[in-house]
């Protein structure tokens, strides 16, 4: 039975507003994707020398400008990952059931990973791989980040409630992007301390990722009572997963899965006295 005292203190019926509607989520994902595409177009149409000048004007140290510019050109492609939560939300809003969406994801993921395995093990495929130019050196002989990204998104979509999965994927796409770009641009400029395995990451990059995840998480759950608690915990978990890659699991898998667990736990705690208001039941009618 719900604790009525707890409910009166933390989540009374008068205080808790209705959850955002499906049109809100659809509009949110559409706008986010459009802004991402505009950023991609802007970067691709900016001459390298102009990009380097913009970075210098933004305060990036001269010795970091060239590496930051290269990282932006490589990482900007990752914004296309926002197409995943957008497509998921559009399918759900048009009446496609969650299990069907999950099956589609598994099909795409298995095909993608299979193709990537061919790239790794078949020389002809490796020589003619269309995205060879954006692969990191260590990805030449192993699965690329795209395969792990697909697996992480699929697991989140399969295991967790839709709004939780979509939020965790946004954490992965934009949070990881923020960590990489801010870390490359301003790493060890403010806090001269190396963190992460081998000291390859920076405090500045991790702070940038946490802030990015927290802001987007709070905006998605903008009408959810005590959203800050669950979003704070999930943002922290996502940041630590990116920083340390626990158990050696690729962060493209650990970030969406672990942040989904954290969001689920957080909302379960704050809504245990108002279960009908919980965002975990947001899509209960179509799960």
Give a description of the structure.
The chain is mainly α and 287 residues long. The protein contains twelve helices and two strands; from the N terminus they run αααααααααββααα. The protein has helices at residues 4-10, 22-44, 48-57, 62-75, 83-93, 98-121, 123-127, 145-159, 162-186, 203-220, 227-244, 251-270; strands at 194-195, 201-202. Strands 1-2 form a two-stranded antiparallel sheet. α8 packs parallel to α12 and α9 packs across α11.
Question: What is this entry, summarized?
Answer:
With 287 residues, the protein is mainly α.
Percent helix range:
55-70%
Q: Report, as a whole number of angstroms, the end-to-end distance.
A: 25 Å
Please give the number of β-strands: 2
Strand content: under 5%
* Main pleated sheet: 2 strands, antiparallel
- Reading side by side through the largest sheet, how are the strands ordered? 1-2
Radius of gyration: 20 Å
Q: Helix and strand succession?
A: HHHHHHHHHEEHHH
Q: Based on helices, strands and strand pairing, what is the structural class?
A: mainly alpha
Low-confidence stretches: 1-18
Tally of helical runs: 12
Shape: globular
- Kindly report the average pLDDT value: 82
């Amino acid at each position: 039975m719900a604790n009525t005292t707890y409910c009166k203190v933390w989540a009374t019926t008068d205080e808790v507003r209705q959850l955002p509607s499906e049109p809100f989520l659809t509009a949110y994902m559409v706008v986010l994707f459009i802004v991402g595409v505009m950023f991609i177009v802007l970067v691709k149409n900016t001459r390298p020398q102009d990009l380097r000048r913009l970075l210098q004007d933004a305060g990036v140290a001269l010795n970091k400008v060239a590496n930051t510019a290269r990282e932006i050109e490589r990482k900007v492609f990752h914004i296309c990952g926002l197409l995943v939560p957008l497509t998921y939300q559009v399918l759900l809003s048009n009446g496609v059931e969650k299990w069907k969406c999950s099956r589609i994801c598994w099909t795409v993921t298995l095909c993608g990973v299979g193709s990537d395995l061919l790239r790794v093990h078949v020389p002809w495929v490796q020589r003619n791989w269309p995205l060879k130019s954006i692969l990191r050196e260590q990805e030449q002989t192993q699965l690329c980040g795209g395969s792990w990204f697909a697996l992480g998104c699929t697991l989140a979509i399969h295991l967790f409630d839709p709004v939780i999965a979509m939020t965790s994927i946004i954490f992965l796409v934009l949070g990881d992007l923020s960590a990489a770009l801010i870390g490359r641009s301003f790493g060890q400029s403010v806090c001269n301390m190396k963190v992460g395995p081998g000291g390859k990451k920076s405090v500045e990059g991790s702070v940038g990722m946490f802030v990015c995840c927290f802001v987007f998480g709070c905006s998605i759950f903008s009408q959810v009572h005590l959203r800050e608690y669950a979003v704070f915990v999930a943002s922290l978990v996502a940041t630590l997963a990116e920083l340390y890659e626990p158990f050696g699991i690729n962060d493209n898998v650990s970030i969406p899965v672990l942040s989904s667990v954290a969001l689920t736990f957080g909302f379960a705690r704050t809504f245990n006295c108002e279960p009908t208001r919980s965002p975990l039941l947001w899509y209960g009618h179509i799960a």
